[in-house]
Amino acid sequence: MSSVIYYKFLHQKNKSVIHFDGTAISVFDLKRDIISQNHLGTGQDFNLRLYHSEQPDLEYELDNDVIPRSSYVLAKRSPATSKMGKFNNASRYVSGKPRLNRKVINTTNANASSIANHTMPSTLPQLGEDASEEDKIKLMFENQSNVWAQTQDELAQHKMVYYKPTATTSATNKEDMPPPGYICYRCGKKDHWIKNCPTNNDPNFEGKKIMRTTGIPKSYLKTISKEEVEKNSGSFTTNENGDVIDNDGNAILITDEGEYAIAMADSKTWMNYQTKLQNAAMKSKQEYESRLLGLVEKYNKPQFLDALSTNKKVLKAPIYTTPCCPDLTKAQKLSNVYHNQDEIENVLIENDFHCPNCGKDDVYIDSLIHAETLEKELQEFVESKEGEIGMTDPSKRSLEEVADENGIKKQKVL
User: Fold this and answer.
1) Predicted pLDDT of residue 33
2) 50-65: string of b/e by CB count within 10 Å (b at 16+)?
3) What's the number of domains the chain is made of?
């Protein structure tokens, strides 16, 4: 049965599993398997680090370190760095060999040699071949005590070396400070790079996307305090784009100065734009109907006129007629027996279901006849005379097209 190691990247919620043979796996092999399993490429543009799950600040630094099976580690990717012309990246885990820390090895060998020299003084007590086992054990403990006493004497004579920051270290600390205007989009603060965000080591942290105010005039922005945002952060939600929004649906934005704001629509300008747009559409509709009415009268088409309207106008689909007056030959009180559906239904209801043309009673709404043939004739007439009308039907055009024709400038809405 193969062994497993559990790992998780800091930005992930669920754990992943690496299978291997044996009771333990080296840090080098584990990093190589993680890169291969997640298809991270050649590893030349990033570095992969592993941390203890119980102590997120404690890193597995050496590639030769061994991690027992069934362990749980945290993985983190960081940008590749270069020092003294040498690149420090994860490419060696893909096609290289484990890196040996020669400084650690040399120090370890030196310490081992020093201890070995101290553990073998020139004058160690000797026992004869006939010595008992208890005497040998007692002599072993005595020798260890003598070695430890000598080591303490040497350590007491060592000179203490205090840490002194170098010019290189000071320059590095200055570079670690982000420039003015930089925002960490993981936590929303501006005093650190996103790679140094304190929430990177928090596996339970769930970052929310905060939009910048780029392109939005300041007059349309309402600044909100950081305390108010932190107080109401529990009620914030995210939309389909992942943007943070409040209870009123306003998107939470962040300015170049690192302050929070929400976008306020210019309602006055928008209402003026809508009023102009509606007036232009109404004017265009009236002009079209007036031109169409003139053509109907010009070509003597009384069957296309609305006889129930107080003002002369052309019929619109759907068009209906009563069963007692199915065509123009039955016209008596009215000049036309074809009517708009809404108008004929209202007239029947108001007149106790009496026909407005011949006066017949019990003409119910469900008995009206749909004049599909007349609708088709009217449509063909309008299409054939569209050139004489000089404009298209406004009902078939969008409001934006009507605005362009009337020279109304389109308003941008936040």
Assistant:
1) 92
2) bbebeeeeebbeebee
3) 3
